[in-house]
Every structure is written in structure tokens, then in C-alpha cells.
Write a structure and sequence with these properties.
- By secondary structure, the protein is α+β, with helices and mostly antiparallel strands.
- Helix content is 42%, strand content 18%.
- A 5-stranded antiparallel β-sheet has the order 1-5-4-3-2.
- The longest helix is centred in the last third of the chain and has 22 residues, at 153-174.
- The chain is elongated and about 50 Å long.
- The N and C termini lie far apart (72 Å).
């Protein structure tokens, strides 16, 4: 019985190893997607959207500089366009940049452990069809709103502080 289970497990395991094609999407003809347009975000409560005359690369650089200037940290970044490029596809520039700072993380977790899933707060940089780029973000108070109760005024106060910092980062980035 044990030997049969081992043979079955080894067969299944070796079968998993024999399919590396699933690790990468198959090559397909290059799609010509339209540029990401964050216009639908402006209709959502708590969102701020800034169309700029900057190129995608310049807007990403200015965002990084503004984050540092405002004494925050880029915690993570993800880019669908970089991922597509690595697989031989070209799509409009797209980057999500997570921004936060450890003292805010500690305060947030003290006020609401559940709110920890929302950190870092993200900016979204998208490339437009005309070569310009747009900066979008959701206000920290909107992000943390589901976790605010009468009991955790500390989370509300912290979110309000972060609203001012994130607004300043956005204004510094877009030149406002």
C-alpha cells in the first residue's frame, strides 16, 4: 500500500515537473491595446487623478523623487508593461507604486490590525495614447474608511495626516 502511494505520488510529481510550458504564456500575435485611461477613476469616491504633459518615464521618476522629498518610502512597485516587455509584448506604460513609512505602519496596526492589508497606499501611473502620462491615487482616508469605527479615532487621525502627505506628493509630482 505504501509503495503504491509512493509510486502514484512520484508519477504525479514528475508529471508536474514535465510541464514547464505552463510557467510562461505562449507567444501570441502582438495585441494593440489602447492606452490605459483612468477617466473612470474620477467618478469613484476618494480618487484623485492628474493628467500631465509628462512622459510616462518622467512621471515615474518625478513620483519617486517626490516620495523621497516628502520623507516617505517606495515600498514596492509593479508594472504590467514591464512584465509584457519581458515576454516580447509592448503595451502602454503602467506602474503601481506602493508608498508608506514604518512609523505609519506601526500606528495603523495598533489602531486596526485588519487595516494592515491596505498598506502600502498606492499611486497608479498610466501612459496615455498621446505619450503623456496620468497620476492617480486613492486618498488614504478612503482606503482606510472600512476600518474606521468610533473606537479607533487613531486610525482616522493617521489617515488624515496621510491624506495631506499623499496630496503633497501628488502636487510635487505633477508640478502643481
Amino acid at each position: 500500500m505504501m509503495r503504491t502511494a509512493l509510486v502514484v505520488a512520484a508519477t504525479l510529481f514528475s508529471g508536474l515537473l514535465a510541464v514547464p510550458a505552463f510557467a510562461q504564456a505562449p507567444k501570441q500575435p502582438e495585441a494593440k491595446p489602447t492606452a490605459a485611461q483612468p477617466s473612470d477613476l474620477t467618478k469613484r469616491k476618494g480618487w484623485y487623478v492628474y493628467a500631465t504633459k509628462l512622459s510616462f518615464a518622467d512621471l515615474v521618476k518625478k513620483l519617486d523623487d517626490s516620495v523621497k522629498k516628502n520623507k516617505m518610502a517606495v515600498v514596492n512597485a509593479a508594472s504590467a508593461s514591464d512584465g509584457a516587455k519581458a515576454q516580447g509584448f509592448t503595451i502602454p506604460g503602467n506602474r503601481v507604486v506602493g508608498v508608506y513609512r514604518n512609523d505609519f505602519a506601526r500606528r495603523m496596526l495598533t489602531a486596526s490590525l485588519a487595516a494592515g492589508i491596505e498598506a502600502p497606499i498606492r499611486y497608479y501611473v498610466t501612459e496615455n495614447a498621446d505619450g503623456t502620462a496620468t497620476l492617480s491615487y486613492r486618498a488614504p482616508s478612503a482606503v482606510f474608511a472600512p476600518y474606521m469605527t468610533r473606537k479607533n479615532a487613531d486610525l482616522r487621525a493617521m489617515a488624515k495626516e496621510l491624506d495631506a502627505i499623499f496630496a503633497q506628493i501628488a502636487l510635487d509630482t505633477v508640478g502643481g
